Amino acid sequence: MRALTALLVLGLVSLPAAAPAGDDSVVTTAPQVGNAAKLAEPVDLEAHYQALLAQAKAKAPESDWAGLRFAYAARPGFKAFGQDTAKSDMFKAVEAGDCDKAAADSRTVIEQAYVDADAHLVAAFCDDKAGDAAGAVRERDVGVGLLKSIETPGDGLSPDKAFVVIDVDEEYALIRARGLKVTNQALIQQGGHSYDALTTLDDKGASATLYFLIDRVLEAEAAAPKPGP
Q: What's the whole-number average pLDDT of the chain?
């Protein structure tokens, strides 16, 4: 994935590095998670997501990307694990330098999961190569907006300031956008919550551990239909 990482870091997005621990400028109020974040009953979760999606497209790039991500994850049948075939094909096409294929696959992923930041950033890269400057700006703005919504409000350097994700793909999308390499992954439990702790290295060899709150991910996994005998 070295080529893909370079594509995201150099060609598409410039996200800030993790803020130093103890930086008072970082808002520390944790977003609601788990059952506390569920919408009031009764509600059609799919219809709610579609309404937010229409609003997000109309207001992009100034949209509530975090709200859209969480609404997407609240839908029935949401899968927090397992990469879609179109997305894995998209990555392979990028690595092979086949932007025609990568662009087509990115559109498929976006159609299935508009909140997938990787797909928007690949689409932006390929639009730019194809000479569609307006399309590239639009897709880049959406991808960056989605990634930055993961970073808000915490800095990710401790469990109490963890990044809140809806699936494992979001963890690695953010890691790639920051140009980091994962050297270790651990699941930790603290204060009644679950976290992925990813130890990373940057291009200068500096190490840092980033924490991702995965309560939503584990809830979705627990609610997913189990295969039959």
A: 84
Predicted local distance difference test score (pLDDT) of residue 229:
59
Q: In sequence order, what E strands does the chain have? A: 163-164, 181-190, 193-201, 207-213
Residue-wise pLDDT tens digits, 5-22: 445 543 444 454 444 333
Amino acid found at 87: K
- Per the listing, tokens 């400028």 go with 25
Angle (CA) 87 92 93, round 5°: 95
Q: Could you write out the DSSP letters of every residue in 70-119?
A: HHHHTSTT--SSS--HHHHHHHHHHHHT-HHHHHHHHHHHHHH-TT-HHH
Q: Residue 118 has which token pair?
A: 């990787």
pLDDT tens-digit map of 147-183: 999 998 889 999 999 999 999 999 999 999 999 999 9
Computed from CA positions of residues 168, 169, 172, 174, in that sequence, does the dihedral angle turn out positive or negative? negative
> Cβ–Cβ contacts within 10 Å for residue 124, how many?
28
Q: Could you give the CA distance from residue 149 to residue 157 in angstroms, rounded to a whole number?
A: 16
What is the distance, to the nearest Å, from the Cα of residue 117 to the centroid of all Cα atoms in its chain? Answer: 6
Which residues face 213 on adjacent strands? 164, 195
**CB-based contacts of 152, cutoff 8 Å, min separation 6:** 27, 66
